[in-house]
Amino acid sequence: MSREAPTSETANGTAETNGEAPKPTLQRRPSYTLLGSPDPAPIVLTAAAVLAFCAGCTNACAMLGVFMAPGIKATGVTHVTGSLTKAGMVLANGPAATAPCLAVLGYVVGAALAGATVPAGMFDRTHARAYGRIVMATAVLLALAAALQEAEHGHGFGFLPVIGAACAFGAQNGLATAVSSSMVRTTHMTGCATDVGLILGRAMGRLLRKDGCGFTQAEKNRLGLYGRLSLGFVGGAAVGTALVQEADIPNARALFVPAGILLTAGGIAAAGFLDPRVDQTPLEA
Questions:
Q1: 96: left (phi over 0), alpha (psi -120 to 50) or beta
Q2: Between the CA atoms of 281, 175, 85 and 70, what dihedral angle is there, to the nearest 10 degrees?
Q3: Which of 34-38, 71-75, 170-174 has maximum average pLDDT?
Q4: Which pLDDT tens digit goes with each residue over 235-264?
Q5: What sections of 73-126 are H helices per DSSP?
Q6: Which of 157, 235, 244, 259 has the fewest CB atoms within 10 Å of its CB?
Q7: pLDDT > 70: what percent of the chain?
């Protein structure tokens, strides 16, 4: 049986064997890398809440049936889980599966467009103009979808409105995901709920192991982020419902409200008001 050569630890953290070349120490990846990433700047928290509000508003309108085409009595356009589920449920009836599948396709195309245009790397305020232009493009897509739906009176637009709306929010979520390393997701709350559960579980584990109680500062920051996103999404859904049911805005005209908000927010960024070379507001709170 061969014996391993004795090793010693050098000051720079590399493992050195007698008579052999030193080997770098294998560093383990943290089990929950999200908490090791930098906290979002305050402007990111505000922007994320606004985007989540617009997504919630649009999805509520869609679920209330503003898109009218074969198989689209009520369908979500800001995420794909419900559309994929609906597609699976109606696979036995081929034509009925067309609408949810096209919604998924539109979402993926939007995310692909964001991936092709968003500047590489994490959020950087020097790229605020580029981010703003992408948000403005999502506003135009959403407004175009609403306009096509309003004009749908036998003109054959069919599924184009729902594809356009899904594409808009695929691009929005692609932008948020790309610049935050998947920390911020603005068009659906499933990932946020998962992360909140992980944080609660970690805190509970520490309590059971008697390693301390309560949340770390990083966990508190993340809970604050997810709270803003959730409140924004729920608030948007409430406004969207009120626009369709209480204000009785016909058909897809309610979608011009979130489209207008997105256009304004994107325009502010695209005009350079968030560029640090123009705005000297500190990045950190």
A1: alpha
A2: 110
A3: 170-174
A4: 999 999 999 888 777 668 899 999 999 999
A5: 81-89, 98-117
A6: 235
A7: 74
Q: Name the residue type at position 132.
A: G
Is the Cα dihedral 25, 31, 33, 35 positive or negative? Answer: negative
Residue 227 Cα distances to 195, 214, 224, 238, angstroms: 11, 17, 5, 16
Q: Which of 43, 48, 51, 44 is nearest to 261 (CA)?
A: 51
Unique residue bearing structure tokens 């695209």: 270
For the record, the structure tokens of 122 come out as 């994490």
Q: What is the pLDDT of residue 1?
A: 47
For 74-100, write each residue's pLDDT tens digit: 777 888 887 777 777 767 666 666 777
Rg over alpha carbons for the chain, rounded to the nearest Å, is 24
**3-state secondary structure string across 111-172:** HHHHHHHCCCCCCCHHHHHHHHHHHHHHHHHHHHHHHHHHCCCCCCCCCHHHHHHHHHHHHH
The DSSP letter of residue 68 is -
* Rounded-to-integer distance, Cα 192 and Cα 81, Å: 15
Tokens at 82, concatenated: 């419900």
pTM of the model: 0.78
DSSP bridge partners of 23: 15
Considering only CA atoms, which of 11, 48, 22, 39 is closest in space to residue 185? 48
